[in-house]
Amino acid sequence: MKKTVKVVAAIIENDHNEILCALRSPEMAIPNTWEFPGGKVEDGESLNEALEREINEELSCSIDTFDVFDENVHEYDAFIIQLIAIKGKLIEGQPTPSEHSSLIWLKRENLHSLVWAPADIPAVEQLVNEV
Ligand SMILES: Nc1nc2c([nH]c(=O)n2[C@H]2C[C@H](O)[C@@H](COP(=O)(O)OP(=O)(O)OP(=O)(O)O)O2)c(=O)[nH]1
């Protein structure tokens, strides 16, 4: 049976209405696709705690996180992901990648120009359609 992983991902928007997009490196699982940065929820953590920890670890900055924005289950060949996207705001530092190959800030209307990890597509659609 495939394993299900619970992953939280941050939708971080700046003052110019741009959203932070992160490129998974060739060494990461699902390589060379764009995602919202985040990672797996550990035992005993709330979703918001997990996301704030992951962003600190991966991007060396701090965010405040809000309510769940989108949640969906996607089946990959090797595992099933429950992807929970949560909006966030930078409160300290600037995002600096340690594991990702690249970071960019994009306006909603340009999000479709990237090749997203398949599990992220519902959250991208919801953002693009947001008023
Ligand atoms: N962080 C994140 N992972 C995503 C997204 N979409 C998507 O399919 N994934 C997949 C890629 C990975 O297989 C898994 C998350 O694992 P990860 O490697 O980023 O998380 P992690 O840092 O907690 O993992 P680990 O190093 O502890 O194993 O979910 C997304 O938007 N954000």
Automatic annotation (TrEMBL):
Gene3D superfamilies, per database record: Nucleoside Triphosphate Pyrophosphohydrolase
Nudix hydrolase domain mapped to chain residues: 3-128
UniProt keyword terms in alphabetical order: DNA damage, DNA repair, DNA replication, Hydrolase, Magnesium, Metal-binding, Mutator protein
Reactions mediated catalytically: 8-oxo-dGTP + H2O = 8-oxo-dGMP + diphosphate + H(+)
Stretches assigned to coiled coil: none
Obligatory cofactor(s): Mg(2+)
EC number assigned by the record: 3.6.1.55
Record PROSITE patterns: NUDIX
Domain of life: Bacteria
GO molecular function, one term: hydrolase activity
Family: Belongs to the Nudix hydrolase family.
Protein name per UniProt: 8-oxo-dGTP diphosphatase
